[in-house]
Design goal:
It contains 4 helices and 11 strands, in the order βαααβββββββββαβ. It has a 6-stranded mixed β-sheet, with helices on one face. It has a 3-stranded antiparallel β-sheet with strand order 7-6-9, with no helix packed on it. The protein has a two-stranded antiparallel sheet with strand order 4-11. By secondary structure, the protein is of the alpha+beta class. Fe cation binds at residues 90, 92, 137.
Length: 169
């Protein structure tokens, strides 16, 4: 279940920077990189979420909406991952930038035949951006502590029900 968090002062500069990046009207790959740079400069701290929100859920990773741009051009979501929680293999409906603000998130990257073509452990402060096609991945908290990341998607994910375009078995 997604919950909504009211914007905080931590998000003010980030939101303004994302607006500036999007206003350049670059292609999706370049936009993802421009937004990633803004996220790197303005990466929130875990207290962008309440202590209760930072606990996550024992059942699955959970998302918290931090901001949705009024025109639907982007949304900022925090994801909370307890130990062992993971996504299904998926791709996205639009570009994305993400940054880790607590813990470590392991990412497996796949090619179109679902062969692993890359793996990385993303630590606090690590920021990246990507865009379809070629964005098939799975995220997994492989550590024994809670991980939190901030994701910026090039759409209002609350209106479309999520960021995933397809799931793969």
């Amino acid at each position: 279940m997604t919950t909504t968090t009211l914007p905080t002062s931590q998000l003010t500069d980030l939101v303004a920077g994302v607006r500036t990046a999007i206003a350049q009207h670059a292609d999706w790959n370049d936009t993802a990189q421009l937004v990633a740079e803004e996220l790197r400069r303005n990466l929130p701290t875990p207290d962008v979420l309440t202590p209760e929100q930072r606990l996550g859920s024992p059942d699955r990773y959970i998302s918290h909406t931090l901001h949705v741009e009024p025109d639907g051009s982007f949304s900022i979501i925090a994801l909370v991952w307890r130990p062992g929680q993971l996504t299904r293999i998926h791709d996205h409906v639009t570009w994305c930038a993400f940054g880790v603000i607590q813990g470590v998130e392991h990412e497996d990257l796949f090619d179109a035949e679902l062969r692993i073509v890359g793996q990385s452990d993303n630590h606090v402060g690590d920021v990246s951006g990507f865009a379809p096609p070629g964005d098939i991945h799975r995220v997994h908290n492989t550590t024994d502590s809670t991980a939190i990341s901030v994701h910026i998607y090039g759409t209002d994910v609350t209106a479309i029900g999520g960021s995933a375009r397809r799931y793969y078995d």
